[in-house]
Structure to design on (222 residues):
């Protein structure tokens, strides 16, 4: 693994099903983030974690949950998917120092039908 | 509320110069970032400004005026591969990134 990896790359999911999007980083970054990106809108923060063992809600957390059991992994779970959750999901990580940028995974394209 | 504004789309000619503007209103300021995002790909980091002035990095430069809540990204000697979306993001007082919707840049030969 080099950098930050998401799985799956894409998924078609039936409404009402449960789904976990996986995210793993090997940069030992303390902060991790989940965003969704929809056409015409900026990246919107779903949940974040500033350090292992802690999580926080972002701008659009409803219908999503996260956990941060260790530094490397930050899975995002949709408990019961709905069509409005159709989006491209990006996981990102950063060192959270002032002048450090966030690094992004390649994204997961999720379609809920 | 917090807000980042940038033009939705711009068109420029190969070899020319283009300036993409970004204005922001956020709860606090801890730096401004520019990212490039090609269609179907993840955003990648271009530049970071925390103090007023110009930061130059090859063909790309970024300017910041904190008093005006304003930044621009300047791209020189445009190449076809520069066709992408350019995202402006501000780190607020909680160290969260607030993102603009992005500017789609179309380069014509």
């Amino acid at each position: 693994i080099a950098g930050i990896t998401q799985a799956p790359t894409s998924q078609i999911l039936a409404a009402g099903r449960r789904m976990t999007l996986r995210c793993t980083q090997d940069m030992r970054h303390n902060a991790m983030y989940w965003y969704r990106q929809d056409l015409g809108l900026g990246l919107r923060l779903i949940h974040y974690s500033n350090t292992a063992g802690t999580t926080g809600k972002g701008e659009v957390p409803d219908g999503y949950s996260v956990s941060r059991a260790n530094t490397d992994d930050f899975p995002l779970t949709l408990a019961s998917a709905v069509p409005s959750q159709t989006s491209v999901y990006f996981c990102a990580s950063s060192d959270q120092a002032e002048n450090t940028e966030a690094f992004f995974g390649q994204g997961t394209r999720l379609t809920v039908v | 509320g917090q807000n980042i504004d940038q033009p939705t789309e711009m068109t420029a000619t190969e070899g020319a110069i283009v300036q993409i503007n970004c204005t922001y209103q956020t709860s606090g300021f801890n730096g401004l970032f520019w990212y490039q995002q090609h269609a179907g790909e993840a955003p990648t980091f271009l530049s970071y400004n925390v103090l007023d002035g110009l930061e130059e990095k090859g063909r790309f430069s970024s300017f910041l005026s904190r008093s005006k809540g304003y930044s621009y990204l300047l791209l020189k000697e445009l190449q076809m591969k520069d066709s992408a979306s350019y995202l402006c993001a501000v780190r607020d007082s909680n160290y969260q990134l607030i993102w603009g919707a992005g500017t789609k840049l179309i380069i014509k030969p």
